[in-house]
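4.2 Preliminary Data

To establish feasibility before requesting continued support, the project team ran the inverse folding procedure on a target of 718 residues. The structure was first converted into the token representation described in Section 3, and no sequence information of any kind was made available to the design step. The complete token record follows.
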């Protein structure tokens, strides 16, 4: 009796499905089971697919693809329908895909599927096809599990998190109790994480050659999954390593390749205390989890590599602050913009100088990418070299500008920004004398420094400046000298600290000023943290800036405090003494435009003065006094403004000195006169005023008393 007759007697048909030609060959029994005339036939793939329920065909297609990839049997159940869409019967198929190694189609390797069809008892003939899949409940559970697993693995940010997620996965119906992930490095295989084992159990598997007779190594060599449903199967296939696995008392094992972009990066092992048959559905779940696990491990590895590179760049490019400075305290912070390599073009530096002084430098190279970071590193080294040679601040910045201009011009596209123009950098260079507190400042397009006085008022100090570095080959950078008094703190920062969150320079300064002026008593380090927290912490969301462009920027901030008993870096003033609030600056003959800055700085000094009309009067008198010096003398105007006392009863004294011996005198200007009203204004607006001759030159001064505590104004002294 022929084999076909024997199979027909037990209602089993034979079929042969050629993937390359798209033809299906059926014997008589197989044709009958598909609802066709009971005779041998050769049909097209489309004709046979039309006999299957669409839902079942999609499942079969996935099962066959899994069997082709693993080289195993494809087992499935399918509903056979007639022309009216009614279910005739349900059949079970068992087939073996045989690859055609010599050819390959556009969708993958060609194969021939050879197998059997056999009728099963459910569902009843004549029932409608509009019901759920045969494996409906289990499949819904599987799909829900895969969705949860995919989401959890996608959110994992590190290898350790990926392994924790893998250990917590609870597969529907067959959860493993032991897991291990093996990684490949050269010709070695090692465990990078495991779960469900005691400490030290991974010793024999921690490091092995890829040619070891062990399933995980075999999977890496072949790229195919290995399923071992019983201890007997494990012992038969891997007798050399079976004694190592036997002591764990497991009943079934699955070893699956971790494949990323066609490359096997390791093996995932799932071990079970109960026997598992590894049906097509179970293998499909394991294969899908292995693919997601491989992608998650690859993403985590890349993220960890980027973080390590970022930290390495930061460690090499952002120096630690130097040794302690007698009588001074320094603190600094650097915050990258967030994504990517976490590096950018902002930097700070503290440079010991040959003179015994030291230099503070802060700058910002255009952009916050790797190119900006590389350019920043070169510029920082150049600045340090020029400073170490003993050059003054203006010469250091001039040489640095020429250096940056030269490399951006020479290397073209390597150092261009988003607008294809050569990159530039802003910079603030300060030479500090710790003994006297003097600050010699050169500024290249950078925000001005901020001084917090000993009594707690934060003021922006206007300084002379030049173009950003790298704009022109030869640029001049005038130097401004300030004095940091005992108890005062200086803050210098990049624009990221001010403009983060959609702010401009004005609104950003308004947000930062209360943080600087708050007397917490916690020291300079706490103040640095508070400044960063003000623009990055939860409180920053309550002061959203006015700008539509909310692109974040790197942040660098540097704080310098000149220590004293009444310290401005956060300690509580002692003995009830309120320090004076003072500002001093010089306006040169060639810089009449700086008078506007003088008015602005005086208004900043009096920002909390009780009487707004007195502030306006002081601003008017100062403007008149400085203008008179520039118009009627040949020298510069030196202004000193000081507010003393407690709020509400303070005294403002402003002096403007010059080198001329000619004393001012009152005049009676006519209605059309353009001058001669300065002393008249002083007499009308000041509480006290006067002119003091000096050894070389003179000083004109006035006083205002907050709340009129010193009586009516208008008196003068000469």
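Position-by-position output of the design step:
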């Amino acid at each position: 009796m022929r084999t076909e007759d024997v199979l027909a007697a037990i209602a089993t048909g034979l079929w042969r499905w050629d993937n390359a030609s798209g033809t299906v060959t059926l014997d008589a029994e197989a044709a009958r089971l598909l609802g066709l005339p009971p005779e041998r036939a050769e049909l097209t793939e489309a004709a046979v697919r039309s006999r299957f329920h669409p839902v079942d065909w999609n499942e079969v297609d996935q099962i066959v693809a899994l069997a082709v990839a693993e080289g195993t049997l494809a087992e499935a159940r399918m509903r056979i329908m007639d022309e009216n869409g009614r279910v005739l019967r349900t059949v079970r198929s068992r087939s073996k895909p045989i690859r055609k190694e010599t050819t390959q189609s556009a969708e993958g390797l060609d194969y021939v599927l050879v197998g059997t069809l056999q009728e099963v008892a459910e569902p009843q003939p004549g029932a409608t096809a509009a019901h759920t899949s045969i494996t409906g409940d289990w499949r819904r559970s599987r799909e829900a599990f895969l969705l949860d697993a995919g989401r959890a693995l996608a959110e994992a940010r590190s290898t350790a998190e990926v392994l924790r997620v893998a250990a917590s996965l609870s597969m529907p119906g067959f959860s493993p109790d032991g897991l291990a992930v093996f990684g490949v490095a050269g010709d070695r295989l090692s465990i990078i994480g495991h779960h469900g084992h005691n400490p030290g159990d991974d010793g024999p598997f921690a490091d092995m050659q890829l040619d070891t007779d062990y399933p995980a190594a075999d999977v890496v060599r072949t790229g195919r999954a290995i399923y071992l449903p019983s201890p007997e199967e494990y012992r038969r296939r891997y007798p050399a390593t079976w004694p190592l696995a036997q002591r764990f008392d497991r009943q079934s094992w699955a070893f699956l390749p971790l494949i990323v972009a066609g490359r096997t990066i390791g093996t995932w092992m799932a071990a079970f205390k109960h026997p598992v048959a590894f049906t097509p559905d179970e293998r499909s779940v394991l294969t899908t989890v292995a693919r997601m696990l491989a992608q998650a491990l690859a993403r985590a590895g890349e993220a960890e590599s980027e973080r390590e590179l970022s930290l390495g760049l930061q460690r090499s490019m952002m120096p630690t602050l130097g040794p302690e400075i007698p009588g001074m305290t320094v603190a600094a912070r650097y915050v990258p913009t967030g994504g990517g390599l976490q590096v950018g073009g902002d930097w700070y530096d503290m440079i010991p100088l040959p003179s015994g002084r030291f230099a503070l430098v802060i700058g910002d190279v255009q952009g916050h990418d790797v190119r900006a970071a590389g350019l920043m590193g070169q510029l920082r080294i150049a600045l340090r070299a020029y400073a170490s040679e003993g050059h003054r601040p203006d010469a250091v910045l001039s040489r640095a500008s020429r250096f940056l201009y030269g490399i951006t011009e020479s290397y073209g596209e390597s150092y261009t920004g988003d607008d294809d123009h050569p990159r530039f950098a802003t910079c603030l260079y300060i030479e500090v004398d710790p003994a006297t507190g003097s600050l010699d400042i050169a500024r290249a397009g950078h925000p001005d420094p901020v001084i917090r006085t000993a009594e707690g008022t934060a003021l922006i100090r206007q300084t002379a400046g030049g173009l950003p570095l790298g704009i022109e080959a030869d640029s001049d950078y005038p130097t401004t000298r300030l004095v940091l008094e005992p108890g005062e703190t200086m803050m210098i920062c990049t624009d990221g600290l001010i403009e983060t969150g959609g702010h401009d320079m004005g609104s950003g300064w308004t947000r930062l000023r209360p943080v600087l002026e708050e007397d917490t008593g916690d020291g300079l380090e706490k103040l640095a943290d508070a400044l960063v927290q003000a623009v990055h912490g939860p409180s920053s969301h309550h002061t959203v800036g006015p700008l539509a462009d909310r692109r974040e920027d790197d942040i660098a901030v540097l704080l310098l405090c000149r220590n004293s008993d009444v310290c401005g870096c956060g300690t509580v003033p002692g003995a009830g003494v309120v320090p004076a609030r003072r500002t001093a600056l010089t306006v040169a003959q060639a810089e009449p435009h700086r008078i506007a800055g003088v008015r602005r700085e005086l208004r900043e000094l009096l920002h909390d003065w009780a009487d707004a009309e007195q502030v306006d009067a002081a601003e008017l008198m100062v403007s008149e006094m400085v203008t008179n010096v520039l118009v009627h003398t040949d020298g510069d105007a030196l202004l000193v403004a000081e507010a003393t006392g407690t709020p509400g009863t303070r005294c403002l004294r402003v002096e403007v000195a010059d080198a001329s011996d000619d004393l001012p005198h009152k005049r009676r200007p006519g209605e059309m006169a353009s001058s001669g009203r300065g002393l008249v204004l002083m007499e009308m607006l000041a509480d006290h005023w006067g002119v003091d001759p000096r050894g070389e030159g003179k000083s004109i001064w006035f006083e205002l008393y907050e709340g009129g505590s010193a009586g009516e104004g208008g008196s003068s002294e000469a």
